């Protein structure tokens, strides 16, 4: 009898399928704020806003251990507006990211889907806008260099390396998915980062051919306001930690070749297509922790721009000065209150038109604009 029972037990043990370890995580961030601006289209404005000191999003991520150091993974992530509940982009469910792939403990991760480019992955965190400490309002003019992650790349394949003693690298290629037009609306980017003790640095590059057609989709126009035959972004950043203080420096350059339409053209009262639009952004930032719960962050950004249009023989040059401050107090590990102040001044040579526009707000009718934001942020 004992042998029969043992036989049944062994049969049941070996007959049960062995499931690999897997995980599923729900995560996100909610941030709501009261916002004041001294000039939006000619009037001061009070409003309930979304974000302020971070983005609003929720997501699902999952992994399955396949053995031998290999995992299958996926991620679905969507932004939303806390004040209305609407999605940022009409018709796009997971506007931030939607990808799946494989990771190997000895080499890295390979994924396909809708994903961030190398500017966002490697360089953005050296700026306050991309670090999550300042929010989108700290972005460089029009977020021309995408350090705020204003757009993602559809139809993309991406590789991210493992950490080699502080050094990481990766790249992305976005397919056009057009029959007979392989190079139209394709994207590719490369990036690398290095950290050693208190020091960190990164470089990244992005090129988009005919952005705004179908790869970055509506996001390129709605969030960044640009379409062009070609967009190129490259930049470098570095940071150094001194006790409670972290100092950071970021430089980016963005070039739009043969603009098809853009928000800047409308503000310049020019309706024809342009030859080019160039931006240079220089950001110096500091992050100081007064106590374990209370931090103060600030940044100064100087940006220059040059615009050329077919029916305008004179190139128009612009410059921007922006000062941003944020104070945050952590009520818990997941919840904090914050207050932020941003001031921007612009100058466009030989033109009375203002280009002053703190990211996330409407244009000022003068060459100056100020915004104050205070609110609550929760993470889960």
Automatic annotation (TrEMBL):
Keyword field contains Signal: yes
Cellular-component GO terms for this entry: cell outer membrane; pore complex
Gene3D superfamilies: Porin
Main localization (coarse): membrane
GO molecular function: porin activity
Location(s), subcellular: Cell outer membrane
GO biological process, one term: monoatomic ion transport
Keywords: Cell outer membrane, Ion transport, Membrane, Porin, Signal, Transmembrane, Transmembrane beta strand, Transport
Record membrane topology: Multi-pass membrane protein
Protein name: Outer membrane porin protein 32
